[in-house]
Amino acid sequence: MGEGLRRYFHSYLPAAPLATFRLAFGLLVLASVVRFWAKGWIEELYLKPKFFFPYYGFEWVRPLGPYTYGLFALCGLCAVLVAVGYWYRTAAAGLFLSFTYIELMDKSTYLNHYYFVSLVALLLVLLPAGRYFSLDSSLNPSRRRNQVPRWTVDALRLLMGIVYCYAGLAKLNSDWLVHAMPLRIWLPAKNDLPLIGPLLGQVWVAYAFSWFGAFYDLTVPFFLLNRRTRAWAYATVVIFHVLTAVLFPIGMFPYVMMVAALIFFPATWHERALDRLRRLLRLPEAAPQAAPLQYSPARRQLLLIGLGVFFVVQLAVPFRYLLYPRELFWTEEGYRFSWRVMLMEKMGQVQFKVVDGATGRARLVNNYEHLTVLQEKMMSTQPDMLVQFAHYLRDYYARRGVQSPKVYADAYVSLNGRLGKSFIDPTVDLARVSDDLRPKPWILPFDDEITGL
Q1: What's the Cα-to-Cα distance from 445 to each of 299, 423, 426, rounded to whole Å?
Q2: Helix 253-260 crosses helix 230-247 at what angle (to 10 degrees)?
Q3: Rounded Cα–Cα distance for residues 386 and 42 (Å)
Q4: Residue 146 near residue 175 (C-beta atoms within 8 A)
């Protein structure tokens, strides 16, 4: 290890940034759980459906029936405990496990910010964010530390940088930059908004949003790191994500990113914020300075190896699409977990046909007898979900006396304003197709080109 790296891994920062991040992150996850519960989404998404779309390798993850409410309650409780820093390490592990289980229950509910929350929760299990301004440190002052290794704070900054930069790299494609798609479709639909509404129907506005969005994602982490540009960059973060929240229904994601970006502010800012909060809540004055947190050489090495593996995976996974031969936006092979945020408007319609293998009798399937509106919408454009539903139909009709059911699908998909076209080979029996990670040759050609990353 070079001398510069050795100095870096033995340098320290005040622990306040980890404490404010922990507090804000826990409260945001709690707000998300309360929002889910209050809007009735737990029942709508996890109790009412007859069928769920599992992730490859996680087929054993299923909704728990009425106990799903208990799972959300556990997640909310862990979020509170993380926020206040009580039983911190156990609470962070519980938050990661419970939130990730919820995320894995049904593929049709996938959102990038759910994945981000799971990753942050996993990082918090490894980081010493409960050593300062926490119940743990108040009840057991020997655990309190005013300073932590610099890399524990930089780990969160690095994750934020990866999210932003990969989102920016994903926007460097011809649909986004050359054709301003899909913003040319989405923005005019918001022309009833006050003040900015009339502008949103203008083509040049869609191009301006597209180009600025790519520039913003690629550069904002570096502007946030720079002391001279940080305040202006954070103002841009707020404006950008407030606009995103107004224009697009993407839940808590804008607020999560606005709060998470505070990790780039210097420790003195976080210390002042925590002092104000302490006075507001009339909490006892901070204890005298404690010794910096010093890991044993073996534990520090183990933690650094764990973080190294974590970040290698985060850097590599978004590029797994290169292992597949055809257009990513069309096949979506390697699309998830790659920070491709709001890059396409994809509409689909699919009609399944089940054929009795013994008699040849065919019957058409009403998708809505088996799927919710959301599930049907997501399934109609995603090949792996089409296969999963075909397997469900095979088993469903086999239980009702159909001999060796064959399942065929007529699917038509429109991508970013293009005319709809056949999506998968209607002569392929999807009941016999494997649901795995290999390329899917039964996806029909795109017959167009989207250049870029």
Answers
A1: 51, 8, 13
A2: 170
A3: 24
A4: no
The tokens for 387 are 């296969």
**Span 105-129, pLDDT tens digits:** 999 999 888 999 999 999 999 999 9
CA dihedral 36, 38, 39, 45 (to 10 degrees): 50
- For residue 284, cis peptide bond before it (omega within 30 degrees of 0): no
SS3 284: coil
Query: Cβ(101)–Cβ(61) under 8 Å?
Result: yes
CB 417 within 8 A of CB 409: no
State yes or no: pLDDT of 293 exceeds 70: yes
CA 324, 326, 328, 329: dihedral to nearest 10 degrees? Answer: -160
Cα–Cα distance, 164 to 102 (Å, whole number) = 25
Whether the CB-CB separation of 380 and 413 falls below 8 Å is answered with: yes
User: Could you count the other beta carbons within 10 Å of the beta carbon of residue 395?
Assistant: 12
pLDDT for res 448: 86
Closest to 36 in 3D by CA, of 122, 120, 105, 123: 105
Q: Contact, 407 vs 425, CB < 8 A?
A: no
Order of all β-strands in the sheet with 406-415:
362-364, 346-355, 406-415, 421-422
Residue 155 tokens, joined: 């780990």
Q: Are 295 and 271 in contact (CB under 8 A)?
A: no
pTM, two decimals, is 0.92
Helix (H) or strand (E) holding 21: helix 16-38
- Within a 10 A sphere around the Cβ of 28, how many other Cβ atoms? 20
